[in-house]
Design a protein that fits this description.
- The protein is an alpha+beta fold.
- It is 53% helix and 23% strand.
- Strands 1, 2, 3, 4 and 5 form a 5-stranded antiparallel sheet that branches. A 5-stranded mixed sheet has the order 7-9-10-12-11.
- It starts with a helix and ends with a strand.
């Protein structure tokens, strides 16, 4: 109970640690993301300002303002209406915009960071001041006039600059070659420039790819570390449980023959027994059988701990004939053995002594874990590349949760780990090791309420 409490507390601490780490990483990466975005915006604005402030771009804007001054002079003289001035500005913009567009395209190619950035310069308001009177040619509420670039959607537009330019005009207006009066006015132009950086997410993510990978890698490394720690703890717990089960099982297995030996020895020391040779011989025979049981148990344990590198010799064997002889000679107490071997003759390269030890383990387990009078099936058949030997019982089967562990050393299925079913959890482990030594494979083919089927596959 205390161990489970400690394991649960450790698991909760690990989950809290990972959650806290994720929270910290989220805020750190989020702040870095915003800083990278602001730095990228600043770089784009600086680079674009450097282009728009060059002499060629300024000359284009001066040209537009000069033509606008001429249109304003015509308006002052009553030769044009406000709407006509707006229309005329649009016509002037078409020619200037083409020149500016060509120039911007050349300049943007020289700066890879600005490859997907668009630029727009627009007039928001135009005010004509003449002799102290102000006349608004373009109001703020009117549609702005785009002078350079293309119209950028409001959702993608980022303000680059906003300024007011003043153009003064002092000129003489002549009619029929005679001087009538001097024009003296100025134009106040409120203009704004915008840039479109709608593709900033891709650029920011590209710049932060390393940070994203490091942050994700750190969290993943911590999770893997905790997983390995818990895996090691669970493995150690299983080993401890296996040791406890092994100690309990071997104690039980030794207790019965040792108790019998103790009783026999006490009986042998009695004078009346010593005086009766037949009883003495019977007791000595029983003592020898108990000794053989203890010796077999000790040999079984030693066999599981001593790893031999001695190569097992293989020879050509009629496996079908061998299995038929095995089935005929074998007698299983309280069970009927059903043998079905095919074909009549099948040659394989194997070792019959190893095959015999594996079959004995499988038949013994089938008898242990199935009710009395239930038949045990031994089948043999050939496939394209293998010869398969199957031993099937009609017991309770093995729960799916335990199937992957039944070949582990000292492992016993909990439901079957009863005092009425003896064993140390070594039989199937040794059987699989023996199968591997001759190049065969021992597997649990299927299991369920109707019993279990173990299959030994030998290469043809």
């Amino acid at each position: 109970m205390e161990r489970n409490y400690k394991t649960g507390a450790l698991l909760a601490a690990c989950i809290l640690t990972v959650t806290t780490l994720c929270f910290i990483q989220y805020h750190l990466v989020g702040n870095t993301y915003r800083l990278t975005k602001d730095r990228y915006y600043a770089e784009v604005k600086q680079a674009m300002s450097g282009i728009t402030n060059q002499r060629d771009m300024q000359d284009l804007q001066d040209s537009i303002r000069q033509q606008l001054s001429q249109l304003a002079a015509s308006y002052t003289n009553g030769q044009m209406s406000k709407q006509a001035i707006v229309n005329a500005i649009s016509q002037v913009e078409q020619g200037i915009n083409k020149q500016a567009g060509d120039y911007l395209a050349v300049q943007l190619k020289r700066k890879p960071a600005l490859g997907k950035v668009n630029y727009q310069l627009q007039y928001d308001e135009i005010i004509l001041e003449n002799n102290g009177k102000a006349d608004t040619l373009l109001r703020v509420s009117d549609q702005p006039i785009t002078i350079i670039g293309k119209v950028i959607p409001a959702a993608d537009a980022v303000l680059l600059n906003r300024e007011i330019t003043v153009t003064r005009t002092n000129d003489k207006s002549d009619r029929n070659g005679k001087s009538i009066h001097r024009l003296n006015f100025r134009l106040l132009i409120k203009q704004s420039s915008y840039i479109d950086i709608s593709g900033w997410e891709t650029e920011v993510i590209r710049r932060m790819a390393g940070i994203f990978l490091m942050a994700s890698g750190l969290i993943l490394a911590v999770i893997i570390l905790f997983y390995m720690v818990f895996r090691a703890l669970i493995r150690q717990k299983k080993i401890a449980e296996m040791k406890t089960d092994f100690a309990n099982n071997i104690t039980h297995e030794l207790q019965t023959p040792l108790s019998s030996v103790n009783l026999i020895m006490k009986s042998v020391l009695r004078a009346d027994v010593q005086a009766n040779p037949s009883i003495m011989n019977e007791l000595l025979g029983t003592l020898d059988r108990q000794y053989q049981k203890i010796q077999q148990l000790v040999d079984h344990v030693l066999e599981s701990t001593i790893q031999t590198e001695e190569e097992i010799k293989l020879s050509d064997v009629d496996i079908a004939g061998y299995l038929r002889e095995y089935g005929q000679d074998l007698q299983v107490a309280n069970h009927r053995l059903e043998v079905a071997i095919a074909p009549l003759y099948q040659n394989v390269k194997t070792n019959t002594a190893v095959i015999l030890s594996i079959l004995n383990v499988l038949i013994d387990n089938a008898a242990k874990y199935s009710a009395a009078s239930k038949p045990i099936s031994l089948k043999g058949f050939a496939t394209n590349q293998h010869y398969c030997i199957q031993v099937t019982d009609q017991g309770e089967g093995i729960a799916p949760a335990f199937c992957e562990h039944i070949f582990d050393k000292f492992y016993r299925v909990p439901e079957a780990n009863r005092l009425t079913v003896r064993g140390l959890g070594l039989g199937l482990y040794l059987a699989r090791q023996s199968a591997a030594s001759i190049g065969a494979v021992l597997t649990l083919k299927n299991t369920g309420p109707g019993g279990s089927t173990f299959e030994l596959t030998v290469a043809l």
